[in-house]
Amino acid sequence: MSLHESLTVIDGLIVSRWSRSVFESMRRGGIAAANCTCSVWEGLEPSLHAVAQWKVRLREHADLLAPVHRVEDIARAKETGRVGVILGWQNSTGFADHLPYVALFHELGLRVVQLTYHTANSAGSGCLESRDGGLTDFGRDLVAELNRVGILIDLSHVGSRTAEEAILASGQPVAYTHCAPKALKDHPRNKTDAELRFIAERGGVVGVTMFPPFMPRGNDSTIDDYLDAIEHTVNLCGEDHVAIGTDFTQDVDADGIRYFTLDKGTGRRLLEVGEVRNPPGFERLDGFPNLTAAMERRRWPEPRIAKLLGGNWLRLFGEVWRDPAGR
């Protein structure tokens, strides 16, 4: 058995065009579980529809997929040769500013929620908002309710001030599920060294992305460039607070990318992304073993590789996920 096959591999965020082909690619990649985006700009009804659609996928592709509600479900998925699906939102607009919906969606399986996506909402400001007004009073109430029910708070697309205030307001550690170091590329979606250290010092985890627009060499990036970004983050945060969050957009077409990069999906253009070409050897999710092999070529110790590829997500999920009824 290879090292990769022995590990519990977890991707902190995938936002692909979901299909059986993608699920098969995930399984071939040896992914034990992934945070699968099912809401970006959507409000209540479309977000509910997306969760319902995942229930259908989980039933129709039960030979490939398994729902993840507890940490133990990830081990069970790996043992049965399936991919554990962690339902996640990249925005909190699906709650429609109604806090009781947080517990409702938790019961439906939602386990990761980002406070804002790119721009402002009722909770705070995104990283592409022209003025970051910080965490709102409603945002503080939302953070408290997410803590109470046991949903991990994601701050990847959140503005600097809003993110800092959310980290301080949260009674539990939080995450950047998919970001890259701003020190390596000055991009508004990337995080400064100070921001990366700040979340780690408070128990959080940084999922490092390889999304080419956020990498120094863009579409010319290699797996080694990705490892450079991971290593930079490890040097800042320590190996106990860094993980993988690829932000894989497998099979997403130009219209899908456009939807992600327009304000609210239909407004002004926020980012120029263009064609996305992932590193050679990691063009698709089934290339995950090549990432592990590259880490081994750098002679990273096996315990470090195990933490980066999934162990740190397991620890964080174990600290945050809980049954709000105390069961």
TrEMBL record:
PANTHER family for this protein: DIPEPTIDASE, MICROSOMAL DIPEPTIDASE
EC number: 3.4.13.19
Top-level taxonomic group: Bacteria
UniProt cross-references to Pfam families, sorted A to Z: Peptidase_M19
Organism placement in taxonomy: Bacteria, Pseudomonadati, Pseudomonadota, Alphaproteobacteria, Rhodospirillales
Keywords: Dipeptidase, Hydrolase, Protease
GO terms assigned for molecular function: dipeptidase activity
Hydrolase found in the keyword field: yes
Protein's name in the database: Dipeptidase
